[in-house]
Known about the structure:
2 copies of one chain form a homodimer.
Chain A: H1 3-6, E1 13-15, H2 20-30, E2 34-38, E3 44-49, H3 50-58, H4 69-72, H5 86-96, E4 100-104, E5 110-115, H6 116-138
Parallel strand pairs in A: 1-2
Antiparallel strand pairs in A: 2-3, 4-5
Amino acid sequence: MNILEMCDPEVAKVPVGATAEQAIRAMLDRHVGAVAVTDENHRVAGIFTERDVLRRLALGDHDPRNVSVREVMTTPVEMATRATTASEALATMVERHYRHLPIVDDDGRLLGMLSIRNLLQAQIDTLTSQLDQARSVVL
Amino acid sequence: MNILEMCDPEVAKVPVGATAEQAIRAMLDRHVGAVAVTDENHRVAGIFTERDVLRRLALGDHDPRNVSVREVMTTPVEMATRATTASEALATMVERHYRHLPIVDDDGRLLGMLSIRNLLQAQIDTLTSQLDQARSVVL
């Protein structure tokens, strides 16, 4: 199972020209903690997360209705590709205190959004099936 | 392993008289997504999460410096006790779309804060040790 298969089926994203308010509404509507911010070529320009809301909006003087997501997103973004392993992705996320990692193709175009929760869930699935297999050998 | 042992060692909390800004700073400083809000008897009065910031502050007209956390926290709170099992806690969190569950004693006093991530990590630890055990039987 590659990391793209671990992601939620639909990735939450907003165009780089969106307002911060639109990005926040996308997070609330989709029950996710981060949205990818993409340019007109579908390439990842940044990522906007709950942490960014806390750090740059809730405690600042910006009004999310009038500020562009571009101004408050996190960039440059740490990214993964289809070739990144789950352990590499987890190591990056733990080390950098990230909970999300966009997965992109060779041209930087968005393929999916991997969350720490996706990784933990995949690890549980793998361990469970390994355990079933080991037990079936015992029986 | 009971659910209290799965929690992070120190629980992030603010008194009910704190401002929303203080609660947000506590979340940022401690790298957590929720703080417990406690009254003068150390009882849980509510919980204040990143979601509350998005829903009630970032898109509203409140200034976190002038609003009390009491006005923007989530209450009543779904809570767990030492007797709640990990599966019961997970079921509640998934069903209600919560990522955190305060654990309280019989008087409602705060003992710990359980996160979905704590639960997933504990499940991984359990499965890993079961797998080691099953494999040692095979060898």
